Every structure is written in structure tokens, then in C-alpha cells.
Amino acid sequence: MKKVLGIAAVLFAIAIVATVWSRDESGSSRFLLPENLANVLQRIGMFGLLSIAAAFVIVTGGIDLSIGAVVCVTGCVLPWLMKDQGVSPWLALPLVLLLAAAIGLWHGLLIVGVGLQPFVVTLCGLLLYRGMMRYYTAGQTKTFGAAEELRWLATGRLPLTADFGLPVPLLVLAVIAVLTSIVWTRTVWGRHLFALGRNEEAARFAGVATGRLTVLAYVACSLLAGLGGCLFALDVNSVQASNFGNFYELYAIAGAVLGGVALRGGEGLVLGVVLGASLMQLLQNTINLTAENNELEFAVVGAVILAGAAVDEALRRWWRRGR
Amino acid sequence: MTGPAMPGLALPGLATAAPLLEVRGVGKAFPGVQALADVHFVLQRGEVVALIGENGAGKSTLMKILAGVHPPDAGQLLLDGELVELHTPKDALARGIALIHQELSLCDNLTVAGALFLGAELRRGPLLREREMAGAARQSLLRLGLAVDPARLVATLSPGQKQLLEIARALRANAKILIMDEPTSSLAHAESERLFDVVADLRAQGKGIVYISHRLGEVTRVADRVVALRDGRNSGEIEGRAATHQRMVAMMVGRTLSQPARPSHVPGRVVLRVQGLRTAAFPDRTVDLELREREIVGVAGLLGAGRSELLRALFGVDRRLGGEIEVGGERLGEGGPAAAASKGLVLAPEDRKLQGLVLSMSVMHNLSLPTLHRRGRFVDRPYERALSERSISELGISTSGGEQIASTLSGGNQQKVVLGKWLAAEPKVLLLDEPTRGVDVGARAEIYARLHALAAQGLAILFVSSELEEVLTLADRVFVLHRGGIAGELGREQLSEQAVMLLATGAGAA
């Protein structure tokens, strides 16, 4: 919880920096423009889903490097089903999510059943799925055409004031975050998941079905990544298999880890993950608004995360010595 | 008692020399606790001094001060009468003080020679002189009576061989003082005997040895002098010859502990029936056994005889190759530990820290882990709290409360948590693997009393122990394993160290 407060404080500080640095000649802040805020919140909604996805497997002590590739798969298959095959949107969406869950099941079975390393399985998955999508789309751009009702999920706004509307993806994230938080902290399933992440052997000796639980975590991860992929695709409405979702697994993992999910497993809060993902988006938005050119974006994000991790470690040591 | 100024067993010609090691009035505080206060300790050349005390008495802290891990807050350390300050373990080693670790710390992936020379490799420029190191390693190990190929991987050594390797490492560094912390805790009987011989040898060579152990039987065998600590202070000192079990316990706990005799009881119905069980470790052996209500049955045998493997296969952590198991008249199928626990068969495993507990979780969450799913899909917090309060009071777990993190408990209290979590599952059969390893005498007596009480209520207990003393005090009857099979069974009146060893070594196999 202390960590969550820390991230919230950093988030607030960056928001202030963004507000101040993005003022134009007239003194009004471009960061606070309703359209910019809604845009940032929409992105937080979508990337937040990916970070929760990543957190599900990091909590078990694993990793999923294929999140971006799964985003690409659902992003290509959903428009293909709807536009090229004429499947109704309300059938296409569940089908695509089922496909994503099946990918997770496949990962889980390879890791638990065959005994492969999560890193290896999902790294190969990354290459495999993206490669297949590039082959099947033959370099073509996938679009939805007119699918306005489904696109509302990604681009819709719930008007709050005359010029500001709450983006729908943020609400999707809120629902998923609350559900995940209940699962993690209030259910036996969640308790077992965290016990497994901290000490798999002891959990097994306590009668926890560790294998099944690990598989379920990978299913949950890919399912959420797939949902995120649908939203991203519906948002841009033009999907290129070669770059759609590129590096998203790294944004997802960085958001989760920034939010206090320990890479060694068994530690993390959903609220922290959401704040971590928000921090990533806020940082990017700030750079876009203030920098002369945003070629430096990656470098700044990397430097800020590194500095954050160093300060966190220094504070922890200082606190431990002070006791 | 021997005063600090009176050298006990100085070698001839060195009568006037100062003791090898003298600790004068050392104190050490950690936040919230005074770990050591005004502790005195003297070690002569060629002397074995046993350091005893309950967990938390300050033995480890004193040991770490001697090994240069912690600096003392107060007091002085003298080596050969010369005042020294030890800042790091490297400092201590350079002055001839070596710590033989409790957790065998050699890197498993190295060869024997590589491990022996780790950090002090023989080199020619940047290249290793492998052949010379192998030769020297063979020599130094032979001196300890250990004939192993220096090219073997450390991982393939037995715990006893690893221990000797650690001692060889210390001797290579010219250690004059060896600190051994629970050296026999993972050794089988025969390996312990070998270690005692080595200790006697080192003593004859004039080394000073600080010997820390919970096993008082050993202490009387190896020690010239026994020094006790209690609550971070000296609480008594006694000559090794005069050290009886009772006197040592009295020094440690400040009162006499009596081990109440097992109340008389009549075994009830058969609750565990095993027929033709085959384990992966010994696929060509089968095990048959029966266990009745109210019985406490021991499983004895040498290390590697398949004792833990038997318990693990019964509980279903390891796959069974064949055989039938009935618990309370019901057949136990596949389905691993969860299935066994639901039928009433549970295991408190050998390695508490790795298998028994999720160390970084709270006491409460550890206690509820195996039974929480029986209370529905959602976490039943009132159940958890009630279970935690009940277990803490019934088992006498000393903790600040259910919220305390399990890793901060002492060994004895951790073991009580392991017991508590399985008692919550209301078992019919309790399997225990090394129930008191690393547990101090006080907590040990409490655990024995608790097991007696549970058996009296009808629980059947099957336990494995490497300590014959424990087997002899606890068990109504004993199965002795030899190479994965039951070599024989001994009733209470036939139980003796000789009888068990005869069967365990295969000599009694008919």
C-alpha cells in the first residue's frame, strides 16, 4: 500500500509538470485541454488492461512476452471476421476473445505440462503469432469499415460536461480492475495464486492445485491482452500486422512492475498496476506535448523508470537501516 | 566452573600462552532486542567447546560476531591474547576463524576441487592450474578420510561429504578456530559418527572448535566444556564429562523440563492401510504397513533409505508407481496432496522453509492455506481469524499475532504453524518428516506433548526422524527401512539403538 501511495504521488507530480510545461503563449495549458485529457484517459484504459494481463502471470512468478503479439492477432482477426466474413459484431467479439484465451491455454500447457520456461514459450509465441498474422494478411491493412456500434467500445465518450466526455475504455478498465481486485484479494483462488507465486513448492505441499492455477493465470493474461487488442484495433480502425501492438508487452510489463508487482512473484495490488500503467501514459503524453521532437520518447521513458527504480531501492534500504 | 582466566587444557610448552580465543563482556543490540549482554567465552587450543541455548538465546549472534558478520556494540575479542576487531567474514578468516555453515553453502554446480579452491584458485596468469588443484584437493580430503574424485560435482555428494568438504575449505584457509553450527542436522547416523572422528582429529591437531547443537546427546560426546546462553547472557558452564542431559537443559531453560511419559493407550481401528506401495525412488521394492488410531509409529533408517520418499508417496506429492492406500476404510486414488488431505491424510514435510510454509506470508494465511477452499469460493475472513487465534493458543505459538510474517518466527514456532495448518484439516493420519529439526529443547518438549495429546484423541501418527533419541522417546513401534523396503519392525520393548541400527544397515535382514 505504501508503494501505491508512492506511485500516486509521482503520478501527481508528473501531471503538474505536464500542466506547467505545456502552457502556450496565452498561458493556458495544452495538457488540461478536454480533448487531451480524454485522449490520455482512453489510452490509460487500453494499456491498463494489458498491464493487468501482464500482472496475472508476473504474480505467479512467470512472464508473458507475447502480449503485443496477441494484441496483433485479435486486432487482425476481429476485422477479418467482421468485414471479410460478415460475422455479426456481437458474435465476432466473443469468438476473438475465445481465440485469445486458447492462446493462453496453449502457453499454460506448454509451461506446466511440458515444463518449458515461460520466457521461452512466450518469446517464441511473440515471433510465431506476429509472423503468422503478417503472412495471412499479406501486408494488407485491416479495417472495420462501418462498425460504429462496436467501435463505440473504443472511441465512445460518456459526456460529463459540455466539452469533456469519459472515454469508454477507461470504464472497461474500471470494471476489469474491480473484478480482478476481488479475485486477487477476496477469493480462495486469488489467495492460492499469490501463495503459489511466493513459494510454489509449499503451495503444492498444502494441497493447492498449482499446475491448474498457473494455466488459468496464462489464460487470464491472454484473454485480457486479447480484449485490449480488440479495443486498440477498434480505436485506430486500420491494422497493419507488421507493427500493430509492437512493444506493447514491454509497456504492459513496465506498467505492472512500476505499479509494485514484484517480478519474483506473489506480490502486487491491482490499484498499483492501474497507477503504474497510468504513469507510463502520462509520461508519454507529457513528452509529446512538451518536447521539440518526440524522437526522445523512449529514452525519456527508460530514464524515468530507471530513476524511479533506483530511488525506490534507495528508500527501501534507508528505511530498513532506520529500523 | 572454569573461570575465564584459568586455562583449561593448554598444550605442554604453551602453559603461559593466552587462550586461543577470548570473548570479554561482549554485547550486541538489534533494534528492539538486546541479543547479547556481557557475554564471556574462552576457547583453548585443542579444545571443543559446545555452545548451547534455546533458539533466540544469542548463539547465532555470538557466532556471527566471531565470524566477522556483525561488529559487537560492547566488549572485546582477543585472539592469542591480542585485541582484534573483525569487520568482515574475510577479516575473520584471515585471522583463522572459519564458520562451517548450517545451510551447506557450497555451490552445487562446481566440482569438488573447484569448490574447495573457490576464491583462492591456483593460477598461472589468467589460467587455472586444474591438475594441481585436483591433486591438492584429493590430498586435503583424504586427510579428513574422504576419498572422492575431485572432478565430481558437489551436487552429487551426500550431506555428510559436503560437510567434510566445508571443513576442508576452512583448513585450507589455515583456520585455527572452527565454528560448527548444527553440523549434524542433515547427516545420517553413520555420517555423524564420521564427523565426530574428524572433530576429535582436529582437536588433537590443536585446533579450537566451537560446536553448536540442539542435540544434547552429541554435545556430551564431543565437548570438553559446555557453555550455555540464555536470553543473551551466560547462563552456566560445565565440564563435558559432567554434562548430563538434565543439567544442560537446566542451564538452557533455567528450570528442569521433565518429559512426561506417554499416557497408556489402546490402539483403535486401522486408519491407514498400505499394500504394495512402490515409489519412484525404489521401483523394485514394495511397502506394506498398517497404522491404527491412537498409535505413534516411527520410521527409522539411514539417510537415503527411502524414508522421506515413503511419506511423500503416501501424501501424493510424488507419483506412486503402484499399490493401494486406504485411509479410514476409503481407497485413496490419484489426485495428489489435495485428494489425500480431503481423505484425512496430511504431511508436515521435511523442509519447513521450502515446503512447509510460504515464508513471506503471514501466520494466519499459512494456517488457513490448506483448508480455506473448504469454506467456499470467497475468502472466509472470520474463519481465518478464528483458526489463527485458536491455533496460536492451543499450540502455544509465540507470535505477536496472526499478522506476523512466518519467516520471522523461530524454528519451533514455524513447526507449530505447520502442525496447526494441518490440524485444521481434521486429519485421521498425520505424517511427520523430521518433526523437530532445528527446534530447540523447550519447543521440542511442547511438540512432543502435543503429539501425545493428539494421539490420545485418536489421531494416528507416522513420523520419520534421523534422531534415534527422538524415535525412542516418541514411538510405540518402529518400522526400519533399508533400501526402500521395510527391513523389520520393532515393538516398544524391543526398541534400542542397537536393534534399529542392525536393521537399518541391512545386517538384520532375514
- Oligomeric status: heterodimer
C-alpha-based Rg of chain B, rounded = 24 Å
> Measured on Cα atoms, how large is the radius of gyration of chain A?
20 Å
**Helical stretch count of chain A?**
13
CATH architecture of the domain at 270-359 and 422-504 in chain B: 3-Layer(aba) Sandwich
Backbone shape of chain A: globular
Q: What are the low-pLDDT stretches of chain A, counting only 5+ consecutive residues below 50?
A: none
Q: Give the helix level of chain B as a range of percent.
A: 25-40%
Characterization of the model:
The complex is a heterodimer of chains A (323) and B (510). Chain A is mainly alpha-helical and 323 residues long. Chain A has one domain. Chain A has helices at residues 2-21, 34-58, 67-84, 89-114, 118-137, 148-155, 168-186, 188-198, 200-205, 210-236, 248-258, 270-290, 297-322; strands at residues 141-142, 157-159, 165-167, 239-240. A two-stranded antiparallel ribbon of chain A has the order 1-4. A two-stranded antiparallel ribbon of chain A has the order 2-3. In chain A, a hairpin with a 5-residue loop joins strand 2 and strand 3. The radius of gyration of chain A is 20 Å and the shape is globular. The model of chain A has no long low-confidence stretch (mean pLDDT 92). Chain B starts with 20 loop residues before the first strand and ends in a 6-residue tail after the last helix. Residues 1-15 of chain B have low confidence and may be disordered. Among the domains of chain B are: 37-107 and 158-253, Rossmann fold; 270-359 and 422-504, P-loop containing nucleotide triphosphate hydrolases (Rossmann fold, 3-Layer(aba) Sandwich), CATH 3.40.50.300. In chain B, helix 5 (159-172) packs parallel to helix 6 (189-204). Chain B is globular. With 510 residues, chain B is α/β, with parallel strands linked by helices. A six-stranded mixed beta sheet of chain B has the order 6-9-10-3-11-12, sandwiched between helices. A six-stranded mixed beta sheet of chain B has the order 18-19-20-15-21-22, sandwiched between helices. The relative contact order of chain B is 0.10. Chain B has helices at 59-66, 89-94, 112-116, 130-143, 159-172, 189-204, 216-222, 245-253, 307-315, 336-343, 352-356, 363-368, 381-395, 411-423, 441-456, 468-474, 497-504; strands spanning 21-30, 33-43, 48-52, 74-79, 82-84, 97-100, 123-124, 127-128, 177-181, 208-212, 225-230, 233-239, 270-279, 287-292, 296-301, 320-327, 330-331, 345-348, 429-433, 460-464, 477-482, 485-491. Helices cover 33% and strands 25% of the residues of chain B. Classes of the chains: A mainly alpha (323), B alpha/beta (510). At the A-B interface, helix 8 and helix 9 of A face helix 10 and helix 11 of B.
